[in-house]
Amino acid sequence: MKLETIKAIFFWFAFISIGILVTFQVSKRGQLTFQEIPVEPKKAPEFNLDGISLLQFKGQNVLLHFWATWCEPCRAEMPLLIELAEKLKGKVTILAVAVDSPHNEIQRFFGNTKPPFVLVEDSKHQIADLYGISQFPETLLIGPDGFIQAIYIGPQDWSLFRLKP
């Protein structure tokens, strides 16, 4: 076989393989999963923004959820987070921290429906910076003792969330 033919076969094999891989990854992008990353418990940093403080929720399980209106995975995940808030009312408090989203965009996102969780506007990244959050969505589970127990990076299928006893 000529070298030119071998190069052509290799090129087309690589091209088709990459195409299949890209197609597979794009098809998986729309599917939400649930992945809890356990962490070595550490004290959650205290914050106080617009009259909302982490101390207000001492003794409660808190999901501190960072999201933005412009973030497509955040938007896709939000209905599941709303369902979770309704299902676990009284067992888990959800603080949804809207990062980099102007007030009017947040209002437009929810429309006339008031979300069943506490909404915190963090347009200057004060809370996000305090927790080292730079990707969205990202969520932290804070236990009643005020310690971070788990992290959830990326969009989650919150219907699979179970609170540990």
Uncertain spans: 24-30
Q: How many domain regions?
A: 2
Total helical elements: 4
Question: Any idea what the radius of gyration is?
Answer: 21 Å
**Overall shape:** elongated
In the CATH hierarchy, what is the superfamily of the largest domain? Glutaredoxin
Walk me through what this model shows.
Helix content is 35%, strand content 26%. It is of the alpha/beta class and 165 residues long. The strands form 2 sheets. Strands 1-8-7-4-5-6 form a 6-stranded mixed β-sheet.
List the helices and strands and how they pair.
Elements: H1 3-29, E1 37-43, E2 48-49, E3 52-53, E4 61-67, H2 72-87, E5 92-99, H3 103-110, E6 118-122, H4 126-131, E7 138-142, E8 147-153
Parallel strand pairs: 4-5, 5-6
Antiparallel strand pairs: 1-8, 2-3, 4-7, 7-8
Write a brief caption for the model.
With 165 residues, the protein is of the alpha/beta class. The protein has helices at 3-29, 72-87, 103-110, 126-131, and strands at 37-43, 48-49, 52-53, 61-67, 92-99, 118-122, 138-142, 147-153. The chain folds into 2 domains: 1-31; 37-160, Glutaredoxin.
Task: Please describe the structure with a list of short key phrases separated by commas or semicolons.
165 residues, alpha/beta, Glutaredoxin, 2 domains, 6-stranded mixed beta sheet, two-stranded antiparallel sheet, 4 helices, 35% helix, elongated
